[in-house]
């Protein structure tokens, strides 16, 4: 038991590495927050653009969405991070991580929002149009509010799953929680910082996972 | 434009990296064959435990599932691979990946199965039991077939996520597809090998992603 505590919860190491883990927490929160905001907005925008039904534009959106749903995020991160500097574009690693995760989230969000828009019955469109709403008015005031409500649980779960991918940043040296933890492990030759990192993630994400669970029972999606 | 082509779509470099990358692909496929059935079986176990009649088992399982859904898979993997050796438990990369993936993917599959089982009415259970089927028969021949059909798109979509997730095994030096491609990248100073690996992932997964969209649309209507 004592050996276990010495290995995973050594008090003086906790004190020593708490500041750097907290720094990692700040970086993780910053990237996660901007990924969630930008990814969801871009996804919603793409779904709205798709509802205009311009064939070539929709084909491009579908290709973008399918590609980012089929490719592992780590693969995209490495292509962008190692490829772009060689063609003269130098992007800092945290920006690479932000950009890739934003695009991945946007792709998944577009698909979910689009399914939500499709699930609003045609009669709602016709009724709104017949009362004098234009296309955008119908979309904005009638269809989207209903569509977005339906999509809350799947969007929440997907957003959590993609936000957790901020840990991939460690591979390209983004100083987020996992990166701080593994660096500290190699300096201290002890697993305590890794345990601290894992606990930091649990504190950050358990509330969101629990909210997702609650939302899922609250608005049952698709099947009833 | 030329620089872009040279950097990302260099056919010469791609063809030289191809043998190494195909070896990586074999390892990725092997990983999938290990990890997907393990997750599907573990998920069923997790789901049954989270629907257990005993309140302690039920809540314990729900806490465990949320715990493993809150920890990023890469953190779990690094913990298993480089944290446990400090406690004297040294696992090979493949075993470490199998253990970490079992905990992570079983939690996700478990939630999907649970939703499926809950979508089958209680009356089905009672009716099957009243015809003389025992609980095990009821589960395997009445409840699960309907449950799985109801959540099929989610099961398939999670499986795509698992296949994509095998790419993080590269971080613990398991020579799978991404690892091999990144090796070739670091030798050639050129991103084309990773683009080739990406193309292989696309060929494997794009049809499945299309299928999921179709399945989801059919379930919605």
Please explain how this structure is put together.
- Chain A has 224 residues and is mainly α.
- Chain A is built from nine helices and no strands.
- Chain A has helices spanning 2-8, 11-50, 55-70, 73-83, 93-119, 122-130, 135-163, 177-188, 192-218.
- Chain A starts with a helix and ends in a 6-residue tail after the last helix.
- The model of chain A has no long low-confidence stretch (mean pLDDT 91).
- Chain B is an all-alpha fold and 221 residues long.
- Chain B has a single domain, classed as MetI-like (MetI-like fold).
- Chain B has ten helices and no strands.
- Chain B has helices spanning 2-8, 11-50, 55-70, 73-83, 93-119, 122-130, 135-150, 152-165, 177-188, 192-220.
- Chains A and B meet through helix 1, helix 3, helix 4, helix 5 and helix 8 of A and helix 1, helix 3, helix 4, helix 8 and helix 9 of B.
Give the helix/strand layout.
The complex is a heterodimer of chains A (224) and B (221).
Chain A: H1 2-8, H2 11-50, H3 55-70, H4 73-83, H5 93-119, H6 122-130, H7 135-163, H8 177-188, H9 192-218
Helix pairs in contact in A: 2-5, 2-8, 2-9, 3-5, 4-5, 5-7, 6-7, 7-9, 8-9
Chain B: H1 2-8, H2 11-50, H3 55-70, H4 73-83, H5 93-119, H6 122-130, H7 135-150, H8 152-165, H9 177-188, H10 192-220
What is the structural class of chain A?
Answer: mainly alpha
CATH superfamily of chain A: MetI-like
Largest interface: A-B, 56 and 55 residues
**CATH homologous superfamily assignment of chain B:** MetI-like
Beta-strand percent range of chain A: under 5%
Largest sheet of chain A: none
Beta-sheet strand percentage of chain B? under 5%
In which range does the helix fraction of chain B lie? Answer: over 70%
The CATH topology of chain A is MetI-like fold
By CATH reckoning, the class of chain B would read: Mainly Alpha
* Low-confidence blocks of residues of chain B: none
The CATH C-level class name of chain A: Mainly Alpha
Spatial extent as radius of gyration of chain A: 21 Å
Q: Could you give the order of the helices and strands of chain B?
A: HHHHHHHHHH
Q: Specify the CATH architecture of chain B.
A: Orthogonal Bundle
